[in-house]
């Protein structure tokens, strides 16, 4: 691996100096990388009227949302709180797509009151929406296309047995309900999963919508969701965004011809925009030899980066503070009182207690899935932008853990 693959600095800012300044563990994001990814997607779809709706849940820090907005992208929000974060970041309601899954009716009303487009993902919800709003509030419908795709079963969400969306087999029922309430349907949506490598899968999802679109005369957009796979290690395959752009744009333009009007094409990338921008830095507490393996115990764990334990996700690891030692094989484990393996069987430059390790691809679903399990504090976040480090979230303190606890007299 070359030094570019295992960077010592981001935009000229030394990662070790950040570890000193902000202490560990620490999430660091390369803002330039995020903007470059947005530009790459815009270029890949340059022949169609593309709207990017960044999947906020991947990395919902307000400063990151601002950066994404400045680069020309809107957002997809899956909770009313994400909608509010987007608005705090300066998004207009019209730039936000709200894609909830089985939320309360109160939350739907709140989104409508804010002026945000709601993505309806059940027939009862279409009905309730119709009863209250009729044709006064345009909405989108999330279709479940019955496509099995995604890096693992937990992140495959467009198949027949998934809770998401309304089955394409129920299209007649959807149309009847929409007609009954004279709903104004502005968009159709699919999202089949995350870590999807094959460009053809995006085309298949789009085609399900093109076919369904003939039932809806007032469409303004077709939303093909997110799920573009990034490389998690050297040589790992990733979605060829140029290829997806080429084949989906071509089919989309043909569809618009048939439909009789030009529509917008929306995409909701999360990982593609932010995964590779992120570096998670953690200090080594101990190196422990056993008869079978050598464990490196870090001052962090699944409470800060749950993807390895939750999805068997692979995050590349390197030794930042000792890059040139002899290579040895280690299991990198966390301090949580559970099986807490961050990375197994990894060849790293010799690790000593006190060394700083870096886990890569930590931008997407890293901090955003972090918790206080074991009563641990969540780390700080730093954004590198225009060659400067900016603290964009403070490290939690003990007071944050007890702030909402109510102590009773016993
Ligand atoms: C509706 C929706 N859109 C977009 C995304 C973003 O997925 P990814 O981060 O894989 O691009 C998700 C997450 O799975 C999602 O549920
Ligand atoms: N959280 C998942 C991706 C999004 C799944 C939600 N639909 C991951 O870290 O891979």
UniProtKB/TrEMBL annotation:
Binding annotation for substrate: 307, 311, 338, 365
Cofactor section: pyridoxal 5'-phosphate
Protein purpose: Specifically catalyzes the decarboxylation of meso-diaminopimelate (meso-DAP) to L-lysine.
Binding positions for pyridoxal 5'-phosphate per the UniProt entry: 227, 365
Enzyme class: lyase
Recorded superkingdom: Bacteria
BP GO terms, sorted: lysine biosynthetic process via diaminopimelate
Gene name for this UniProt entry: lysA
Known pathway: Amino-acid biosynthesis; L-lysine biosynthesis via DAP pathway; L-lysine from DL-2,6-diaminopimelate: step 1/1
Full protein name: Diaminopimelate decarboxylase
Subunit details: Homodimer.
Keywords of this entry: Amino-acid biosynthesis, Decarboxylase, Lyase, Lysine biosynthesis, Pyridoxal phosphate
Domain Orn/DAP/Arg decarboxylase 2 N-terminal: 33-275
InterPro entries according to UniProt: Ala_racemase/Decarboxylase_C (IPR009006), DAP_deCOOHase_LysA (IPR002986), De-COase2_C (IPR022643), De-COase2_N (IPR022644), De-COase2_pyr-phos_BS (IPR022653), Orn/DAP/Arg_de-COase (IPR000183), PLP-binding_barrel (IPR029066)
EC numbers: 4.1.1.20
Active site: 337 (proton donor)
Catalytic activities: meso-2,6-diaminopimelate + H(+) = L-lysine + CO2
GO molecular function, one term: diaminopimelate decarboxylase activity
Signal sequence extent: none
N6-(pyridoxal phosphate)lysine modification, residue list: 57
Similarity remark: Belongs to the Orn/Lys/Arg decarboxylase class-II family. LysA subfamily.
Domain Orn/DAP/Arg decarboxylase 2 C-terminal positions: 27-363
């Amino acid at each position: 691996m070359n030094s570019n693959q295992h960077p010592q600095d981001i935009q000229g800012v030394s990662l070790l100096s950040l570890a000193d300044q902000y202490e560990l563990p620490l999430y660091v994001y390369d803002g330039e990388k995020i903007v470059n990814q947005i530009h790459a997607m815009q270029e890949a779809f340059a022949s169609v009227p593309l709207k990017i709706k960044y999947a906020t849940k991947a990395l919902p820090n307000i400063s990151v949302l601002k950066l994404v907005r400045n680069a020309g992208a809107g957002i997809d929000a899956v909770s009313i709180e994400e909608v509010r974060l987007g608005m705090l970041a300066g998004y207009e309601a019209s730039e936000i797509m709200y894609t909830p899954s089985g939320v309360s009716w109160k939350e739907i009303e709140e989104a409508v009151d804010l002026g945000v487009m709601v993505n309806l993902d059940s027939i009862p919800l279409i009905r309730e929406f119709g009863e209250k709003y009729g044709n006064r509030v345009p909405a989108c419908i999330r279709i479940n296309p019955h496509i099995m795709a995604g890096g693992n079963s937990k992140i495959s969400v467009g198949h027949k047995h998934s809770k998401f969306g309304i089955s394409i087999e129920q299209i007649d029922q959807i149309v009847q309900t929409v007609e009954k309430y004279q709903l104004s349907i502005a968009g159709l949506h699919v999202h089949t999963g995350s870590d999807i490598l094959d460009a053809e899968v995006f085309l298949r999802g789009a085609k399900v919508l093109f076919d369904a679109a003939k039932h809806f005369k007032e469409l303004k957009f077709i939303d093909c969701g997110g799920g573009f796979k990034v490389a998690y290690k050297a040589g790992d395959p990733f979605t060829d965004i140029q290829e997806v752009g080429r084949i989906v744009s071509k089919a989309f333009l043909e569809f618009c011809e048939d439909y009789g009007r030009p529509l917008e094409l929306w995409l909701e990338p999360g990982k593609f925009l932010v995964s590779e921008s992120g570096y998670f830095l953690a200090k080594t507490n101990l190196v422990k030899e056993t008869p079978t393996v050598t464990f490196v115990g870090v001052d962090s764990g699944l409470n800060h980066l749950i993807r390895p334990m939750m999805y068997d996700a692979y995050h590349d690891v390197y030794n930042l503070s000792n890059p040139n030692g002899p290579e040895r094989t280690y299991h990198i484990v966390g301090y949580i009182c559970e099986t807490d393996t961050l990375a197994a069987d990894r060849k790293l430059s010799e690790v000593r207690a006190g060394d700083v390790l870096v886990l890569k691809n930590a931008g997407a679903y890293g901090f955003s899935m972090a918790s206080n399990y074991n009563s641990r504090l969540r780390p700080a976040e730093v954004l590198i932008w225009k060659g400067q480090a900016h603290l964009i979230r403070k490290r939690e303190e003990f007071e944050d853990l007890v702030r909402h606890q109510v102590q009773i007299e016993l």
